């Protein structure tokens, strides 16, 4: 039996992205035997960075949303002091004007700017700004709430008591907030505004199906972004190194072929090599539908659950363009902001445009990221590395899966269109580009195995998603109908994102730790 235990783990984590590394780190730090299986040649998933011709680029997420989650997680693991975070203020560019968002007064200035462009919409904008203030203040308070399972020793209860003393009045705003959570953003805007272009501008930064609370709340989230020194990859590399130092194991280039079961309980994995490894728990920290339909016999799942899983739609994807520019970053007019959302025109993008508009990439809002604004050495001296990201659908213009020649031709066209759109703000940009390449939703699908290149898990549409509820339901979302099989990551709970990945990773680890500790107590 002792010989068999050598290849036996307390938990096997399938997927080495942020959620999987979070779960594995908490388990390894507590002395539990844990194995992370990652199909790629590096950990991190959408948390990745890479070098090209002297420029550092971030291949997935472009800045870290703290949300009282990321930094407390690192602090609880004892790793926070090993990362230097740079504040990463967001700026919004519209009509050639740039507005940095550092406090609510800046949001007011942005709405004033919109009113100048759309003077007939003054009354509607005023009402939306009032709701924005309600959501902003509520989030401002709740983002400072000390989440219990990220407590440091002897700090949690006192910190929460102090929070309630200072923020108790916020609870009077919850009824209005709950109302805004139940409404979709675009229909809400249509109730208050008449101009379709303004409705597009306010909503097209967000996925279709976004709630009002989420859409308006992002004005507060914009003040809570950070960039880790060394690039986004710093976080997964630190977690990977630390969990291995604590005794955890990571296998790269290791794809799971099947899950193993004993008496209806998940009990291990089989790799494509035929090797089998057993564990008390499996944590699926990747595409949940793949884990439950491709790695698991259909008979293991309840019919209603299985049908809902298969029918659910996935989230949007993204088209990324990576540029090396032979101009200093100071000359680009970004006012020191390394993270900018840019509207090429005053028309915006409709939901129909996301699928059918032929010149979509000339007009879509762009997320612009410039790492060297945080660290000069992330680009060659006097030059600028820039990433342009545009939200898109897997189904845009007939889809991304095409014959190689057609695929490359379209990728080149869409790249040129995005650059042309940005040249309205940075004239003659194309003349200063020394390196240029791009990544499509197909690239993301191939790299991460996320269905249709989805970057946020499930659809934001309430009626089309798989798992969506209030935050009190997140704890139960890590369980599946199969005993011993847990889930973590942005496929676990919608709307997804890096805070959800961290939270569900920690929650899954807590389930395993509770069970292991309970068994240990029983043996005593």
Question: What report would you give on this structure?
Answer:
The chain is of the alpha/beta class. The chain has two domains: 2-84 and 230-312 and 466-523, 3-Layer(bba) Sandwich (FAD/NAD(P)-binding domain); 87-228 and 314-448. The chain is built from 19 helices and 19 strands. It is globular, with a radius of gyration of 23 Å.
Topology overview:
Elements: H1 2-5, E1 8-14, H2 18-29, E2 34-37, E3 49-52, E4 55-58, E5 64-65, H3 70-76, E6 85-87, E7 90-94, E8 97-101, H4 104-117, H5 122-142, H6 156-167, H7 174-181, H8 185-192, H9 196-203, H10 212-221, E9 225-228, H11 234-245, E10 249-251, E11 256-262, E12 265-271, E13 276-284, H12 288-293, H13 303-311, E14 317-325, E15 339-342, H14 353-356, H15 360-363, E16 366-369, E17 384-392, H16 404-422, E18 433-439, H17 441-448, H18 474-477, E19 485-487, H19 498-523
Parallel strand pairs: 1-2, 1-13, 2-10, 7-15, 13-19
Antiparallel strand pairs: 3-4, 5-9, 6-9, 7-8, 11-12, 12-13, 14-17, 14-18, 15-16, 16-17
Helix pairs in contact: 2-11, 2-19, 4-5, 5-10, 8-9
């Amino acid at each position: 039996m002792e010989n068999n235990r050598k290849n036996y783990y307390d938990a096997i984590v399938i997927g080495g992205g942020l959620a999987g590394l979070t779960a594995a780190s908490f388990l390894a730090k507590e002395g539990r035997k844990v194995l992370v299986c990652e199909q790629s040649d590096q950990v991190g998933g959408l948390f990745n960075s890479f070098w090209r011709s002297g420029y550092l680029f971030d291949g997935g997420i472009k800045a870290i949303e703290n949300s009282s989650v990321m930094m407390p997680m690192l602090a609880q693991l004892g790793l926070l002091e090993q990362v230097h975070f740079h504040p990463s203020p967001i700026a919004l560019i519209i009509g050639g004007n740039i507005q940095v968002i550092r406090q609510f007064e800046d949001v007011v200035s942005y709405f004033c700017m919109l009113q100048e462009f759309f003077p007939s919409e003054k009354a509607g904008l005023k009402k939306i700004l009032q709701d924005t203030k309600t959501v902003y203040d509520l989030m401002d308070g709740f983002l400072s709430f000390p989440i219990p399972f990220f407590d440091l020793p002897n700090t949690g209860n006192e910190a929460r008591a102090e929070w309630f003393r200072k923020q108790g009045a916020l609870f009077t705003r919850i009824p209005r907030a709950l109302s805004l959570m139940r409404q979709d953003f675009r229909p809400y805007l249509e109730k208050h505004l008449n101009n379709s272009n303004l409705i597009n501008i306010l909503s097209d930064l967000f996925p279709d199906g976004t709630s009002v609370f989420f859409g308006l709340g992002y004005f507060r989230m914009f003040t809570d972004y950070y960039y880790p020194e060394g690039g986004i990859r710093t976080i997964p590399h630190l977690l990977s190194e630390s969990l291995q130092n604590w005794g955890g194991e990571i296998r790269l280039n290791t794809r799971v072929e099947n899950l193993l079961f004993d008496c209806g309980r998940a009990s291990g994995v089989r790799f494509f090599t035929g090797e089998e490894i057993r564990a008390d728990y499996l944590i699926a920290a990747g595409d949940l539908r793949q884990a439950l339909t491709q790695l698991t016999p259909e008979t293991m799942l309840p019919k209603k659950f299985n049908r809902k899983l298969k029918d659910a739609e996935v989230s949007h994807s993204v088209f990324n363009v990576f540029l090396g520019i032979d101009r200093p970053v100071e000359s680009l007019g970004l006012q020191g902001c390394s993270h900018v959302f840019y509207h090429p025109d005053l028309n915006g993008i409709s939901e129909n445009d996301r699928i059918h508009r032929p010149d979509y990439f000339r007009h879509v809002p762009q997320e612009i990221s410039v790492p060297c604004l945080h660290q000069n050495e992330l680009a060659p001296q006097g030059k600028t590395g820039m990433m342009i990201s545009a939200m898109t659908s897997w189904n845009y213009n007939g889809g991304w899966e095409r014959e190689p020649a057609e695929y490359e031709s379209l990728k080149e066209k869409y790249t040129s269109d995005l650059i042309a759109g940005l040249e309205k703000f940075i004239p003659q940009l194309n003349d200063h580009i020394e390196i240029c390449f791009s990544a499509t939703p197909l690239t993301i699908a191939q790299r991460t195995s996320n269905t249709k290149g989805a970057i946020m898990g499930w659809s934001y549409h309430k009626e089309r998603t798989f798992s969506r509820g209030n935050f009190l339901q997140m704890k139960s979302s890590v369980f599946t109908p199969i005993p011993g099989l847990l889930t973590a990551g942005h496929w676990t709970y919608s709307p997804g994102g890096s805070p959800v990945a961290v939270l569900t990773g920690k929650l899954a680890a807590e389930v395993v730790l509770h069970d292991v500790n309970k068994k240990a107590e029983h043996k005593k």
